[in-house]
C-alpha cells in the first residue's frame, strides 16, 4: 500500500545483430528522466540462476550487449531488465529465449584486396567480439567482370584465410564481393559486401 512502482520497460527483445547478441527495450510510459536500467541473464543450463551483468547495471541507455556474458554459444539464453529511479524500481521484464549459434545474424565481412602483378589476394575480416572468434566462421567470395552477371564463386573459405586468384587471363575492370557464413542446422549467410572493383592487366 502506498508503494509507487516505476513503469516497466517495454518491448523487451533479445536480438541478434551483426554477430552480437543484444537485449533492447524502450522506456515504460511515464518513466522519470533519471531512470536507469539493470540487466541480468540466464542460460538454459541453469534455469534457477540469473547472472549479473556488471557493464549493464544502472545504465541510461536502452540496450545491453550480452555477447560474451555467457560462455556457451550452443545453449538458449534469456535476459531480463528492470527500471530503477531513486528507491523505486519496476518489476523485471523477461525476453524470449535465443541461442547465439542458431540465431546469430551475420553482417557482411570487410573485404581486403591486394592486387599483385598477375594475382589477386583477397581475405575477409569480421567485425566480431573476441569471445566468438573460435566459432567456424567462413566466407564466400565472388569475382566477376564489371557489367557481367557471370560470377565465379570461391566458397567456404575460413575467416582470415586468403584466397589467391590468378588474373593472367583476365583483362579489364573486375569486381569482388564477399558474404559471411556459418553452418548451424544448415548454412546461414549474410548479405554480400559492397563490390570492390579493380583494373586488371591494364597497360599504360
From TrEMBL:
Tell me the ranges covered by the Fibronectin type-III domain, including all copies: 6-103
The Gene Ontology terms for molecular function here are: cytokine receptor activity
State the InterPro entries in the record: FN3_dom, FN3_sf, Ig-like_fold, Interferon/interleukin_rcp_dom, Type-II_Cytokine-TF_Rcpt
Gene Ontology cellular-component terms for this entry are:
plasma membrane
Q: Which residues cross the membrane?
A: none
The entry's protein name is: INLR1 protein
Name the species this protein comes from: Nycticryphes semicollaris
